[in-house]
Amino acid sequence: MSSENVKHIVLILSGKGGVGKSSITTQLALSLTLAGHSVGILDIDLTGPSIPRLLGLESAKITQAPGGWVPVEVHPSQVLPRTHSQQQPHASQNGISNGNGAESVNGANTLLTITGTQSDTQKKIGSLYAISLAFLLPSRSSAVVWRGPKKTAMVRQFLTDVLWPPLDYLLIDTPPGTSDEHISLAETLLTKTLPHQLSGAVIVTTPQAVAVSDVKKEINFCRKVGIEVLGVVENMSGFVCECCGERANLFGKGGGEVMSGDFGVRFLGGVPVDMAWGSLVEEGRRPLYGEVKNNGDDEEEDGDGERRCEREDVARDEGLLVDKYRSCALCGVFEGITRQLVDIVEGRGSEDG
């Protein structure tokens, strides 16, 4: 790795699979670029790499250059065009964590306030790059059947042989657990990086007790190997219906915040489930809230007696992912989380020297 080109390295960790580490990593990266920072994503989930799919870059390939690999450019630094104001979801009226562990309705960190601001202003954004084993595989369905030593060697190669351009932040998306990849990652970063490069780790959990129990092990792992825990993000923290705006806590609520208090680490915020984010990364559709119509027959009903509704058909938007993300309700949530993360990382850096 071109160590002198990377200012801050942040690990995204969790002791449990399926909690949304890759989704959190992607949205943190997009939010950081919207704040003007240059960002890189390193995907070391070798057997289940999903960053290329989330970024819409499944057909991209890594370029080999003298001295190492050149990462894939997601987008360059640029000024995003002004976008039209869109009706926002009712999420802010149903209480979304404001990044400090509290819920607010009309505060500065609600979805409605933040997303509206971002949608109506021009944005000077930072560049975004990514590298993943998926870029080296013949197809996205190719299986990686490797033993521990080969995984360890691959992680070390990713950490030493990637020719990153100047980056403010390098986010490392990791597999679940505390296995060979994590040990290799910790050993390499703690012994071969410049002072203060490894800023620490963001821990991702979901509210359920079974997830929190596994994630506690990840915090203990960080403390054993000497990696600072920067904060905890509770993913899947409620679901907000796009049609009616009602919020349901499908997976419970507050487990991540309670765990943060038990371990004395910062709770960065809760992230609700947003179907528009899924449509954005799966279909490339710019999020559009609050526009629902009948399917054409007022009398036709489904088996449950509910009149079928469908969202307005929106043509696939070929614009940049980061531009379309500005219209997503979660953009506001991550602006608050990102602001806290930057304050922690850069605030500590200025104090240390």
From TrEMBL:
Q: Does the keyword 4Fe-4S apply?
A: yes
**Name of the protein in its database record:** Cytosolic Fe-S cluster assembly factor CFD1
- Protein species of origin: Cladonia borealis
**InterPro entries named in the record:** Mrp-like_CS, Mrp/NBP35_ATP-bd, NUBP2/Cfd1_eukaryotes, P-loop_NTPase, YlxH/NBP35
Source taxonomy lineage? Answer: Eukaryota, Fungi, Dikarya, Ascomycota, Pezizomycotina
List, alphabetically, the GO terms of the cellular component aspect. Answer: cytosol
Which residues does the annotation say bind [4Fe-4S] cluster? C241, C244
- Region called Disordered, residue ranges: 81-102, 289-310
Q: Which UniProt keywords apply?
A: 4Fe-4S, ATP-binding, Cytoplasm, Iron, Iron-sulfur, Metal-binding, Nucleotide-binding
Family listed = Belongs to the Mrp/NBP35 ATP-binding proteins family. NUBP2/CFD1 subfamily.
